[in-house]
Structures are given as C-alpha cells and as structure tokens.
Amino acid sequence: MCVTDIRLTRRGRFAVYGDGEFCCTLHPEVYARSHLQVGDVIEPSRLGALCYETEEKLLRERALNLLSAREYTRRQLCDKLVAKGAEEEMAAAAASRMEELGLLDDAGYACRAAADMARLKGYAPRRITQELRRRGLSEEDIAAALDSLEEENAQERIAQILLSRYARLWEDEKVRRRAVAALQRMGYSYEDIRFVAAHIEDFIEP
Q1: Torsions phi, psi of 16, nearest 5?
Q2: What is the pLDDT of residue 74?
Q3: DSSP codes of every residue in 162-180
Q4: What contacts 176, CB < 8 A, 6 or more positions away?
Q5: Which of 14, 37, 99, 148 has the least CB density, counted as fewest CB within 10 Å?
Q6: What stretches in the chain show pLDDT beneath 70?
C-alpha cells in the first residue's frame, strides 16, 4: 500500500491515507517514530502495529487523566476504560503500566478507603468489607486494610452515633426505626443495636 496523504487532525494526531483512502490516525509520538512520509510503501502489518501502538498510547493517557482526577482501584480503572470503548486486554495493560508508575496501588487504596469509611462514615467492618469487595479489591488487601484500623468497641461506636445523630430517638418511633435501619446498613448487628438502644444510659459519660 502506498501512503498518499498525511493530515494533521484537530486533536493534534496524524490521519494516514493509503491509495487515496483513509487508513488510520496515529498518535504524534508514534507518527514521529514511524518516519512515515507521503509516497512510502507500507505493509498492512506494519500499519496495523502503528495503529495498535497508538491505541496503547491513547489509552495510557486516558488512564493518567482519570487518575489525576480521583483515585481508582485496578478493577475500577479497567472497567472505566472498557466503558469508554477499550478492549479488556488493552485496559488491563494500561492499568499494569499505571501500577509500574506507582499511580495505581490497590493495597494502599484499601487502607485509605477503610480508614475514611470508619472515621468519616462510621461504618462497621462488615460494611467496609462489602464496599471494598464492590470496588474490586482482593480479599488479601481487604484483610490487611481491616487490620490497619484502630480497634473499636462496636457497641460504644453505636452509642456515639445514636447520641450524635438521633437525639430524638426516645421520643419518636419513626426516628428509632430509621436509626436502627441506618445502623444496620452501616454494618452493625441488630443485636448490638438493640442492646445499646435499651441501655443507652450506660454509655453516657457523667
């Protein structure tokens, strides 16, 4: 195939035409390394390799952009890239490259996320485990994250939440039901919730 035209696109990439027809678009770096010129004869296999290299380059840039905006787990990043049209194999390769660069760290993510859920949201270990699994983290990373948390007494934590968020617990049955449901969603057992609600005076500091 003969390269009949090369045009710079609005996105700063290079559209390559062969035998008068559009063939593909190349990333600027890929194009520069290829040394392609109008009039060159290029094998379809080489052009295919350049196109694949372009896709890899663009996918890595997309991964970098995503990670610059917020933190992702490996699975979340792969799912996001696939949702934007990437093949699973290429998405996985891009994620691996982000790990090599130190921009993707599931173990660190698990510890930070667990700490935030425990401290800011008051989640119990059960709910934290559910959330970390949902984000695609391994059981090993989840276990290490839970081990890194400060050990808390579940009943004392329930009492803190009830006293700070549900002041009308003993005046309004609807508030009481809402509090119980909320605490169960946060991962606390119904037995602990019921015990604390029945003995809340014992948890109030004099």
Answers
A1: -105, 130
A2: 96
A3: HHHH-TTTTT-HHHHHHHH
A4: 166, 169, 170, 197
A5: 37
A6: 169-170, 205-206
d(CA 154, CA 171): 24
> CA angle 190-139-132, nearest 5°?
60
Residue 73 tokens, joined: 């787990």
**pLDDT at res. 206:** 57
Count of Cβ atoms closer than 10 Å to residue 175 Cβ: 15
CB neighbour class for 176 (10 Å; exposed up to 12, middle 13-18, buried from 19):
middle
Closest by alpha carbon to 30, among 57, 12, 7, 9? 57
State the DSSP string of 78-90. Answer: HHHHHHTT--HHH
| DSSP summary character for residue 102 | T
Which tens digits make up the pLDDT trace of 115-148? 999 999 999 999 999 999 999 999 999 999 999 9
Residue written as tokens 């839970």? 146
pTM of the model: 0.80
Which amino acid, residue 126?
R
